[in-house]
Amino acid sequence: MNAGRISALYTFLDPSGALSASVETPDLPITDTHKTSHQQNIAIAQKLLEGLGVGQDPAKVAALFDADLIFEIQGDDGVLPWIGYRTGRHAIADFIRDIRTLTEPVTFDVEDILTSDSRAAIIGALETRIKATNKITATQFAIILTITGDVVTRFQMLEDSFDVSNAART
Fold it and tell me: Is the pTM of this model over 0.90?
């Protein structure tokens, strides 16, 4: 186990659509632009994960995000500083600083990165120790990045916020 490092990263693209034959989906043509936006969105998600995994400066990671970013992690507002709704690029930089200051990663496994023309969804599971209580929380997560052009305009993280809040309470 490598604390603080991404221990697994899986990326899957099926541009031919061969594996989705049993699923009803709209008949969308796959164009070079379509492929490019998906590839770009995966690259942006991977840059975010790499920046987080190697301890990159929060301001440098925040450069991937729009100045008017919408930042959202639903949960028990006030228990941890990153839970709630924020706006502006500083919200992601604050989130990274706070996570690094108040928690210690135990595991962070990325299972998949799913994309559309305007989004990348990072799916995985994590375990984190809350430093103030020494409690470990384990949760599956989805980080949904809405991407416009080459920047993230919305960051939304879905996790078991009930368990995270409980672990933060003394």
Answer: no
Q: Is the dihedral of CA 63, 47, 101, 76 positive or negative?
A: positive
**Which residue is listed with tokens 């990671």?**
61
Half-sphere exposure (Cβ direction) of 27: Cα atoms closer than 13 Å:
0
Domain range spanning residue 64? 31-168
pLDDT in tens, 17-40: 444 444 444 454 545 555 678 999
Q: How far apart are CA 149 and CA 170, in angstroms?
A: 43
Domain count, the chain: 1
Between the alpha carbon of residue 5 and those of residues 1, 118, 148, the distances in Å are 9, 27, 28
Lookup result for tokens 């078991």: 160
Q: Which phi and psi angles does 164 have, rounded to 5°?
A: -65, -45
